[in-house]
Amino acid sequence: MAMRWKNTLKESDVTEETAFLNRRQLMGSAAAGLGLAAIGATGTRAAAQDLQPNAYEDITLYNNYYEFGTGKDDPARYAGQLTTQPWSVKIDGLVDNPGDYAFEDIIKAMTIEERIYRFRCVEAWSMVIPWNGFELADLLGMAGVQSGAKYVAFETALRPDEMPGVKYPVLEWPYVEGLRLDEAMHPLTMMATGIYGKDIPNQNGAPLRLVVPWKYGYKSIKSVVRITLTDKQPPTSWNKANAREYGFYSNVNPEVNHPRWSQASERVIGGGLFSKRVSTLMMNGYEEEVASLYAGMDLIKNH
Ligand code: MTE
Question: What residues make up the domain containing 184?
């Protein structure tokens, strides 16, 4: 299942300089024994649409990870306390091979590749992130999805001793998320284990987090400890907190506003004084790849 969808941004979207940097960092980490199987971002032309990966600092210092506090800099400040070794993911429910899968065993069995994806938060900011990781479909394949499964439920670790934010009832803990099985099996859907060729930092969801690039960022649940195949639509944290404002689907849609703000445009993180607002793209720019998943559905009702 190697190279499909590898870079969904076109070559022309990636600057020469960034491509060079990515290649170098990837080669560095491959040499360091991370076993990266695919080297991405071989773009050689200048940016046609002015899209380029955000700086590592943008991606790792401006975060949402409420288990460590609600401030954008809280995760970078406090997530270092999270113990990520050893780590295992329980895969259970409607699967042939339920069990606790050690993170190292998962990594060994998967093909790690680079994917440069747009990332759009429901709060109307965005970044472009060069993830490393594998397709969720490959992991689900390893677990053996049974025919009755219709949804996939995800759960984040809950460690009150290491997570200062969970003493506040901002959300019901643990953080949980869910996808329809066809969304989970879509080749764009990945489990990220790295950024810019380095192990994913704790504040971004170490050691592995979901990435669903056509959905608002809150669907991309961090530090996953459990994946359950089920025949019922699973509860999701933000929907439980406020069902009117946060639906199960949460597909990026510039035509469906959040009840309290517009979703028509987004603030691009980074660039300091030169940071800008751009129009939000339907399904965050992945409409061609994923629109068929929602054929015939009312996207307002199923927001
Ligand atoms: N996962 C957990 N467990 N807890 C969280 O608070 N925040 C979500 C999502 N996953 C969150 C989470 C939200 S609102 C966003 S926008 C993204 O993570 C942010 O990911 P980033 O910090 O890597 O940019």
Answer: 55-294
